[in-house]
Structure prediction request, 225 residues.
Amino acid sequence: EAQVTQNPRYLITVTGKKLTVTCSQNMNHEYMSWYRQDPGLGLRQIYYSMNVEVTDKGDVPEGYKVSRKEKRNFPLILESPSPNQTSLYFCASKRTGIYGYTFGSGTRLTVV
Amino acid sequence: ELKVEQNPLFLSMQEGKNYTIYCNYSTTSDRLYWYRQDPGKSLESLFVLLSNGAVKQEGRLMASLDTKARLSTLHITAAVHDLSATYFCAVDIRGFGNEKLTFGTGTRLTIIP
Prediction:
């Protein structure tokens, strides 16, 4: 089944403790992206990647890192999480060009 | 900067009624998407509209796109409870590079039996 898999689904952590949210897609998509969803703000892009080893900032990149060492994986790294990063996170992927996006099932992160 | 506005933000309607959700965007784009999200769930793709005048229908939902007016509509016909969800429109800007989706803030639809 074609899908974007995120892990974990739920995570509660403490301020300052490094964490990684994994994202993997099995569709050989070139493009991958991370979004965060907050009430009243909709979804905002954090980082994106056009292909392996090509990443760039989205609209709200502060406090996040990403890497794209393999085409299928695009982890989101929070080096020192803070409470304002409490959010619902989605990974998405697509083929380059006029194609639709496939979203992962989301990761609900709480930083206390 | 591309802005995407949806209205209404909240919509409560009775079963069997018709209603329309509006999505306005500020910059030229010919790719508009509609998504559905159930509480705590991921985004489910409903429609992709790629050209001016595009109209797509699936069951009780119909979406249209007017690129000249920079307006898309999602029309609900004879609403049923199962359509209760939050609906998002999203636009990506023509061209290469970051194929970022810019989302509207969503319309929370509640269908009352």
In short: The radius of gyration of chain A is 13 Å. The longest strand of chain A covers residues 42-51. Chain A has a mean pLDDT of 94.
